[in-house]
Amino acid sequence: MKIIYSKFHSLENEKQERIINAALKEFAKNGYHKASTNEIVKEAEISKGSLFNYFNNKKELFLFLLDYVANVIEQIYDEVNWNEPDFFERIRQLGLVKFKVYKKFPYAFNFLKALSHEDAAEVKPAINKLKKDMVESGLERGYQNIDWTKFREDFDREKVINIINWTMLGFAEEYMNRLDSIEDVGMEILHEADEYFEILKRCFYKKGER
Amino acid sequence: MKIIYSKFHSLENEKQERIINAALKEFAKNGYHKASTNEIVKEAEISKGSLFNYFNNKKELFLFLLDYVANVIEQIYDEVNWNEPDFFERIRQLGLVKFKVYKKFPYAFNFLKALSHEDAAEVKPAINKLKKDMVESGLERGYQNIDWTKFREDFDREKVINIINWTMLGFAEEYMNRLDSIEDVGMEILHEADEYFEILKRCFYKKGER
DNA sequence: TATTAATATGACCCGAGTGGTCAATATAGT
DNA sequence: ACTATATTGACCACTCGGGTCATATTAATA
Phi, psi (5° rounding) for residue A96? Predict the structure, then answer.
């Protein structure tokens, strides 16, 4: 049975986002149990009473976030062109869409990542369901339609893919650390990422491929 | 002024390690403020009274750990052969030594990493000092004596180094996630890492270099 | 504008958990 | 046997947790 959270949804958008971001941040940082609703209402600039008016309790708030984030991810996947055959162009697109999400919900990915270490029994089943759904709908699409013939054949493909992904992850993290605030990520990040793509292409594509 | 913690140091080694690891784990996971001394004594299998006998209070315990970890890192650096000119051999060695430390203090690196996000005012100055010292003594040595002529010259060297490092970091993390417990890391990890080195060498070294 | 309905507020509740203490106990040394 | 040292965990004062609710503020209706 699906809960509708009508109280919350009839709020102005900006307030909704403030609450979502505050909650994502707090849960991501501290996990379900140690996350403080006091901290959330302070960050979201609403009163305690309001929060518990929109969501009956902490657990409902958390479950709402799970669902919300799942939808956001779903949306990301829908925006990507899964027919693009060039591997680098594909992850570039994925990066771009993720970047847009990041601007709106800076803590969504941290929240998602933290889920894997979550051990609160009350929310574990919901988390496992989310994971299952994401693997099914996500990895299913995964790298379909990619033109692997562009790649050199003398390397283990899985390892090459890992190197490329870890490079992007490492770059993104290092880039974030360079900034003072998580909020002021600019478009420059993509230019710099492209320079890494350029190197990796020349390493892993056959000569002459672009 | 340096505190000696004589009470603690006259304990049997095994007990010292149990306490250190329990404390590192708790602080790494929860940060200074939210770390619980109750949790630490439970994990270390000592009584509350004992902990506060060895260390007068939470802050002293934390400062002790800072100092201890700094020394461990220092030791790592001393074990590495800084004359080895081959870049990959060098970080392989570093990995090996880190691996040894990891077996003894599984949470030391998590603890160190968590320090950068620590915001407890009571311990901030000590953390900053540690960071300063580590950058000075560590990055100083850094990549000295490396034979850079082995590398292709048509790539930006800094970016290449980043790719290699991020690959190793990504690999290590992925490897850890594959394991059930942080404790059962085996030597196989090095063999698998070597396979990545092989790929990266063929990418970034000039033809014919090994 | 007066009245009602809907929202938003934060002081307050009680239970859980905090860092830290200390009289009582167990162990070791002589 | 006696003393000195090491260890224990019940206990304390206090903070902070999720959640409530009477009151205050705003919006809607007339």
Answer: -60, -45
Check CB contact under 8 Å for B199 and A170.
no
Helix residue ranges per DSSP H, A80-123: 87-104, 108-115
Q: How far is the CA of A51 from the C1' of D22 (A)?
A: 17
Question: What is the model's pLDDT at position B41?
Answer: 98
Instruction: List, for residues A6-47, the tens digit of each pLDDT value.
Output: 899 999 999 999 999 999 999 999 999 999 999 999 999 999
Residue B108 reports pLDDT greater than 90: yes
The residue with greater pLDDT, A68 or B182, is A68
H/E segment holding residue B185: none
Please count the helices (runs of H) and the strands (runs of E) in chain A.
11, 0
Distance CA A154, CA A97 (A): 32
Average pLDDT over residues B92-105: 90
Alpha carbons A16 and A27: distance in angstroms, whole number: 16
Q: How far is the CA of B122 from the C1' of D4 (A)?
A: 36
Nucleotide nearest to B34 (CA to C1'): C18
Which of B110, B173, B203 to mutate to probe the A interface, most A CBs <10 Å? B203
Measuring alpha carbon to C1', the residue closest to nucleotide D8 is B47
Dihedral (C-alpha) B173, B174, B180, B186: value to the nearest 10 degrees? -80
Looking at CA atoms only, how far is residue B66 from chain A in angstroms?
A: 22
**Is A30 near strand D, with its CB below 7 A from some atom of it?**
no
pLDDT of residue B189: 84
